Amino acid sequence: MTETAVAPKDTADLAQGEKVQYVNELTTLNLGPTHPATHGIFQNVLTMDGEKIVAGEQTIGYIHRAFEKIAERRPFYQITTLTDRMNYCSSPINNMGWHMTVEKLLSIEVPKRAQYIRVIMMELARIADHIVCNGILGVDTGAFTGFLYLYEKREDIYEIYEEVCGARLTTNMGRVGGMERDLSTTAIRKINDFLKTFPPVLKEFEKLFNRNRIFMDRTIGVGGISAERAMSYGFTGPNLRAAGVDYDVRVMSPYSSYEDFEFDIPVGQHGDTYDRYMVRNEEMWQSLRIIEQAMKNLPEGPYYADAPEFYLPPKKEVYRSMEALIYHFKIVMGEIEAPVGEVYHAVEGGNGELGFYLISDGGRTPYRLHFRRPSFIYYQAYPEMCIGSTISDAIVTMSSLNVIAGELDA
Amino acid sequence: MLTNQSVAEEIIRKFGDDVFDFEEPFGMLTFSTTREQIIPMLEYLKAHPQFQVNFLTDIMAIHYPDKVGQEFCIVYHTHSFIHNFRIRIKVFLAEADVHIPTATGLFASANWMERETYDFFGILFDGHPNLKRILNMDEMDYFPMRKEYPLEDPTREDKIDALFGR
């Protein structure tokens, strides 16, 4: 960034009006940090030639909360609350990804029922994540209606979260070793209701947007990236699939029984905003398919693993049995030591491969924990994607990348 | 189908004594190499007609203050989408000399990953186009993820390690 704003030489320049544009004066423009169209705290210092973007540089870290450092002093179960503050649009995926990482380190085998419940919650979270992204993409292109239609259904998903874990946004869902509670009858009814009522709404949403002339003009060919560049930039998830690479962690390295389900991986061709939108829409349909199958084949059995050292005993037993009381105390005080080891576990988050690299030196807390946050890695491609386009296109591009500030800054 | 054994053998054949400490924790092929060989190694894995390790998943660092002469460990996670094969490469650096060549020439994504590693550990990536802080503020004059910076106020006496974890 060597160019700075060049002020008009004298007022005569201003008087000439549009002529000034052709002098090729470069202007520096601050997009953000708190611009309503950036959906989060992002700053972009853009160099503009008239209305065209010539260069851009992002400033990030506005909500950096040092999660990796904090995690080095917390027992494993307390780190769950840090993970759901990363991608807060799909917190259950983060929670379960973390639980699965710890379970891998401890070699805990989780019962099928718990795995299926996790799949249901993770797919609901994916739908909620894509609702946010696609709904707001509509708002940014000037159509508020679709956003309102879809957000009503996101509320339904949050009610299911409430039923399963008691919270809505920062869910802290599940435990190391399984789920905190079984699916209640209310939760099952709400999930089944959602499966019935969501498809018509999503269909209506697609009717409003997919072949909408204004929407197509605003998104096709905007913010495109080739498959090679996307891979070089570390894209994963819907953004990579929109560029035509069919990489999905759920299929490549299945976790939590994803191999039991039948679903398709949608891919795009051009990697532009429209393809990203279409891929996310199709993924919502595929997530519905997975939830349907999981609800139909939900196995009977326990919803947590037999791992007394890590899974809190039922409260009733804590009051009655000495052993349960001891375990309860040890877990809550974080006195249980984990085995030595290093483990990398990746899940398909709302935005791509969400990885947890955990190094344990045999202590009560991780020796080092690193989050591979998909948004952080692919957001660096943003200037390259919007150079040569206009501000309004840059806004739409950012919206369709679904960069979540919490995940970006950790 | 690549196996850890076959890939490791091929890498040893090519790099000889420059690769060592082979492990497979939880099934992932892990080995260490030297600072001089890390870029040729990534380049070799990327260009290899069979392996095609064409995706850089992550770069991060670990601080081991007790390992004299090997205080910092830089970890590269790489991934071959074609074979769904992951390789973890480690490079150990001494605290007195924390220079390592940049991987930005091979993977565009290395840019921010290396900036993050610099920001938190002070690792200097030689040849990086824009090595400056990324998540912390520019005025910061220390590297917070190093182990010498404890998270809580060390002068507090009411919280002792025996009761409250590390």
TrEMBL record, chain A:
It is found in: Cell membrane. One of its GO terms (cellular component) is plasma membrane. Its main location: membrane. Residues 140-409 form the NADH-quinone oxidoreductase subunit D domain. It holds the Pfam family Complex1_49kDa. SUPFAM superfamilies: HydB/Nqo4-like (SSF56762). NDH-1 shuttles electrons from NADH, via FMN and iron-sulfur (Fe-S) centers, to quinones in the respiratory chain. The immediate electron acceptor for the enzyme in this species is believed to be a menaquinone. Couples the redox reaction to proton translocation (for every two electrons transferred, four hydrogen ions are translocated across the cytoplasmic membrane), and thus conserves the redox energy in a proton gradient. NDH-1 shuttles electrons from NADH, via FMN and iron-sulfur (Fe-S) centers, to quinones in the respiratory chain. The immediate electron acceptor for the enzyme in this species is believed to be ubiquinone. Couples the redox reaction to proton translocation (for every two electrons transferred, four hydrogen ions are translocated across the cytoplasmic membrane), and thus conserves the redox energy in a proton gradient. Belongs to the complex I 49 kDa subunit family. This is NADH-quinone oxidoreductase subunit D. It comes from Runella aurantiaca.
UniProtKB/TrEMBL annotation, chain B:
Residues 33-153 form the NADH:ubiquinone oxidoreductase 30kDa subunit domain. SUPFAM superfamilies: Nqo5-like. InterPro entries: NADH_DH_suC (IPR010218), NADH_quin_OxRdtase_su_C/D-like (IPR037232), NADH_UbQ_OxRdtase_30kDa_su (IPR001268), NADH_UbQ_OxRdtase_CS (IPR020396). Belongs to the complex I 30 kDa subunit family. HAMAP family: NDH1_NuoC. NDH-1 shuttles electrons from NADH, via FMN and iron-sulfur (Fe-S) centers, to quinones in the respiratory chain. The immediate electron acceptor for the enzyme in this species is believed to be a menaquinone. Couples the redox reaction to proton translocation (for every two electrons transferred, four hydrogen ions are translocated across the cytoplasmic membrane), and thus conserves the redox energy in a proton gradient. NDH-1 is composed of 14 different subunits. Subunits NuoB, C, D, E, F, and G constitute the peripheral sector of the complex. This is NADH-quinone oxidoreductase subunit C. The gene is nuoC.
